[in-house]
Amino acid sequence: MPEGKIVKALSGFYYVAANDQIFQCRGRGVFRKRKVSPLVGDFVEFQVENDLEGYILAIEERKNELVRPPIANVDQAILVFSAARPDFSTALLDRFLVLIESKHIEPLICITKIDLLNEEEEALIKNYADDYRSFGYEVLLTSSENLANLDELREQLQGKTSVFAGQSGVGKSSLLNALKPELELKTNDISNSLGRGKHTTRHVELINVEDGLVADTPGFSSLELTEIEAEDLPQYFPEMVERSHSCKFRGCLHVNEPKCAVKEAVDNGEIPSYRYEHYLQFMDEIKERKPRY
User: Fold this and answer.
1) Is 57 exposed, middle or buried (0-12, 13-18, 19+ CB in 10 A)?
2) Which of 142, 164, 227, 272 is the most exposed place for a label (fewest CB within 10 A)?
3) Residue 123 main-chain phi, psi, to 5 deg
4) Where does 45-149 have alpha helices with state H?
C-alpha cells in the first residue's frame, strides 16, 4: 500500500506527495463516519486508482494538529511579527508562543521591518529580542528592504514542516516570496484605517522551500486559550519551567503561593515584568472560562 503526505487540501480533494509525484485523492466514507478529516501534513496510506488518482485509506497517528490553520505534524512555527506597521506587541507574541508550546511545536520568532524604526525604537526592539533569547527562543531580525538574515532562516527550514504565522500585514508572504520568488504570493498593503492587513491567503498548502515544507497560512484566526488548563500554563513559559523546582510548593502556579522562585525572579528583574503580567492575564482568562461539559 503506497504511503505519502498530504500537501494540499482543496474542494474535497487531498493532494498526496509520494515518490516525487502528486496524487489527487478522495477520502473514503469511513472517515466521515468516524468524524475524522484528513489534514494537510497527515501521513497517509492510499490506494492508487490510476496514474495520478486514488483514495486515502488510513491516516497515521499525528504528533500534533492545529485547528486554524487546519494542519498536522508541524515541526516548527515561524512567528512573524513586525517591528512597526502593525506595531510590535509582546502580549500577542506571548499568546502565540503559549499556543505553539502547548502543541509541542518549536517556535522561531522573526521580527520584520526593523528598517522602519528610529534609533530609540530599534534599541527597544533589540532589548525585547534579547529578552526572548534569554527565555531560550531563537529570534531573527529582518529589514523589509534587503531581508537580512534570510540565510539563517533558510537553514532553519531544512528538513522540517513549518508554518508561518502572525498578524495580517506583518510580511509573511513577503518573506516567503523572498525565500522562493517563483511563489509570487499575493501581498496586500496594510489598510491604514484598520492598521492591519487584509487576508490574502485562502487555503493551506505545503510548498517546497529549502529542502523543507512550508505552509503559508492565513495566520491564526483564533487565539483563544480554550484547550489550555490553568495547571498546564506554567509549562509553556520556559523561564518558569527552569525555576519551578526551586518553588516551595510542587505544582506552584506562581500566582499567590509563598516562597515562589518565579515571583522572586520577577522581583529581581530576571524575568521581565511584562512577561509575568501576560502570564497572569492568561491565567485569569483560563480560570474565567466557562467549564465545558
Assistant:
1) middle
2) 227
3) -60, -40
4) 90-102, 119-134
CATH topology of domain 230-288: Ribonucleotide Reductase Protein R1; domain 1 (1.10.40)
Grid cell in block for residue 100: 505553539
Question: For residues 97 and 50, what is the distance between their CA atoms, to the nearest angstrom?
Answer: 44
Helix (H, G, I), strand (E, B) or coil at 124: helix
Fold of 3-61: OB fold (Dihydrolipoamide Acetyltransferase, E2P) (2.40.50)
* DSSP 8-state class, residue 249: S
Cα separation, 262 vs 270, whole angstroms: 9
Per-residue pLDDT at 259: 96
Tens of pLDDT, residue by residue over 120-131, are 999 999 999 999
Annotated binding site for GTP: 112-115, 166-174
Q: What is the pLDDT of residues 180-221, one digit of tens each?
A: 877 766 655 433 333 344 444 457 789 888 889 998 555 565
Binding residues for Zn(2+): 247, 252, 254, 260
Tell whether domain 66-216 is in CATH 3.40.50.300: yes
